[in-house]
Amino acid sequence: MPEAVIVSAVRTPIGTARKGTLAATPAEDLAVHVLQEAVRRSGLAPERFDDVIFGETLYGGGDLARYAAVAAGMTHVPGVAVNRHCASSLTALGMAAAGIRAGSERAVVAGGANSSSLGPALTWAAPHSPERRTPPTFPYTEDANDFTDMTVGWNVAQKYGLTREQMDAWALRSHQRAVTATAVGLFTDEIAPIKVTRLDGEIVEFAADEHPRATTTAEKMASLKPLRPEIEGYSITAGNACGTNDAAAALAVLADDLAREEGIPVLAVVRAWASVGVDPKYTGVGAIDAATKILDKTGLSVADIDLWEINEAFASVPVAACRELGIDEARVNIYGSGCSLGHPIAASGARMVTTLVHELRRRGGGRGLATMCAGGGQGGAVIIEVP
């Protein structure tokens, strides 16, 4: 059985939605950019690829992966769009690895693209009401609905007894880590700068994440109002929640025998992938359960993982995960995550793995685990190993 190996991992810089540098750039353009760059960096000819699998979320139609393939000149390569909400691009990577290990494909590009600024959103009309809502992923109840600040942020904070101070401190550190990493160029290897037209018409080369805030302080975090002040003690704020963002990320995944035949260096091996379902009321727990499942199925322990990426959909998620699983916070999101870098939903999973690949290579190897919750009471995780 062939191993699934990553031979390139790349992303765009992350833009702030609706007012940032990528606010006028469609998700399709972002997808084409990372697809072309992932293929170029792989060293394998475009015509050798068997499929493109891209995550996309809430767009209500189309096939982002096929669009990108055709626009990139890879007309003969099919494409499939995957929607597992926040975990979409992690699922895309797992699907690519599964196809390769099964022997049905030898070369796949997996990733995701997200434009919160421009992406269409399918909505349904409600009977006898002027309101329109996105199609549900699960049957809504009073305690479990599409308000993610409650099902991901607040309910998880309540379940694990987390304080606002703990979540604010995590979010502040996330910004500090992201700002420092950007300043010293630690994202340079993984970012593919992209030439875009800004909202004001200016053409620029976008090369660095713009969401992290160097001026964020504990005092500013503490001054932010809760998102639902009508609920007593509500501790979720804009500061300890993720950003709304635009970005894309992609990884070229090959069969290890193909990489050897072509003399292509291996960056990492995809060791395992997993998905879970949880009570939608506690959607944030999906990140914990997905990590637990993937560790169980590989026989690995928390101590066997050198670096962790636990998506900061809300700061409550990584805080709870570290407490519940006994993870050293110093090994988690070492260069920031959703609260600071931002959360370009369909691209975040691939972004997390991309960051793990490049950082583990800088460290001379090791294992990395990316895990995240996903809308509707789900979670996804991937383990990679850099030799």
Automatic annotation (TrEMBL):
Keywords: Acyltransferase, Transferase
The EC number(s) this enzyme carries: 2.3.1.16
GO molecular function terms attached to this record: acetyl-CoA C-acyltransferase activity
Domain Thiolase N-terminal as annotated: residue spans: 5-254
Gene Ontology annotations of biological process type: fatty acid beta-oxidation; phenylacetate catabolic process
Pfam families: Thiolase_C, Thiolase_N
GO cellular component assignments: cytoplasm
Domain Thiolase C-terminal: 266-385
Domain of life: Bacteria
Active site: 86, 343, 373
Family: Belongs to the thiolase-like superfamily. Thiolase family.
The protein's name: acetyl-CoA C-acyltransferase
